[in-house]
Write a structure and sequence with these properties.
Length: about 260
């Protein structure tokens, strides 16, 4: 697929998707959603890619869903086109880890996209918000659920009901982002984390990600049962043999994803 709203690159074992609608502060429109889904599919199918980074520009990760595209849509059109939902499903259930590298505006659907990823690295200039209330709607891409799980009811409620934005330092303090770095370094920092993940066993990474996500869905006993099954399963992988042998032989493991 030819991309007009995103740029897709591969650097070693990392796939990098850059949102690229600078004229609209990377507002997410239907075309971008289609392209993101296609890019994520192709990076998932590419066995050489072990971790994905989703990023934007220094000025804006994304200012949210494209308001100009939505202004004349009614609820039936929203429902029938499932405006954006295939994207949230795709990112939320993506088998490989995704690191969001964000800077500048991270608003509305942009914040929802970042929160659907697994790790969030922020530049010191990042501002986070769910401003949908200011345009007469509410978050619809998981914001009420994911933000509340990430920072708790009261802070989420204030952000969602008043449209209040928080800066990177506050986001870090609230547990919304993994790291805050100078603006020149946010992509580099994301690459460092992605590279570390990409060196691990892809099988173990995939199952560990699934297990952590399960913790947000089920009770403790069910979650522990799920973890145990996946843990047993990993003992059938070649990567487990390789990892344990490499430790004993005092060498670096060469994980193949088998
Ligand atoms: C369409 C947008 C946009 C958006 C910015 N632009 N955000 N276009 N949809 N969400 C466009 C502007 O219209 C403008 O284009 C250009 O980008 C630059 O924006 P400015 O407003 O001139 O920049 P600035 O003054 O720096 O203000 C930046 C901003 C502001 C604070 C981010 O643009 C803003 O408030 N944007 C809307 C944020 C928002 O409400 N997001 C939530 C959307 S709803 P022109 O052509 O005019 O120069 C949502 C729901 C998701 O995300 C639900 C999913 C199912």
């Amino acid at each position: 697929m030819e991309y007009s709203t995103i740029i897709v690159q591969r650097e070693g074992r990392i796939g990098i998707i850059t949102l690229n609608r600078p004229e609209a502060l990377n507002a997410l429109n239907s075309q971008m959603v289609k392209e993101l889904i296609s890019a994520l599919d192709s990076l998932n199918q590419d066995e050489s890619v072990r971790c994905v980074i989703v990023t934007g520009s220094e000025r804006a990760f994304s200012a949210g869903a494209d308001i100009k595209e939505m202004v004349n849509m009614n609820s039936v059109q929203m429902a029938m086109t499932e405006h954006f939902f295939p994207l949230w499903d795709k990112v939320g259930r993506y088998p490989k880890p995704i690191v969001a590298a964000v800077s500048g505006f991270v608003l509305g659907g942009g914040l929802e996209l970042a929160m659907s990823c697994d790790i969030i690295v922020a530049s010191e200039t990042a501002v986070f918000g769910q401003p949908e209330i200011d345009i007469g709607v509410m978050p619809g891409g998981g914001g009420t659920q994911r933000l509340t799980r990430a920072i708790g009811k009261y802070k989420a409620m204030e952000m969602i009901l008043t449209g209040k934005r928080i800066n990177a330092e506050e986001a870090y303090k609230f547990g919304l982002v993994n790291a805050v770095v100078p603006k020149e370094l946010f992509i580099e920092e994301a690459k460092k984390i992605a590279t570390k993940i990409a060196e691990k066993s892809p099988v173990a990474v995939k199952l560990a990600k699934a297990a952590v996500n399960k913790a947000l869905e089920v009770g403790l006993t069910q979650g522990l049962d799920f973890e145990r099954e996946l843990f047993y399963l990993l003992f059938s992988s070649e990567d487990k043999q390789e990892g344990m042998k490499a430790f004993i032989e005092k060498r670096k493991p060469d994980f193949r994803g088998r």
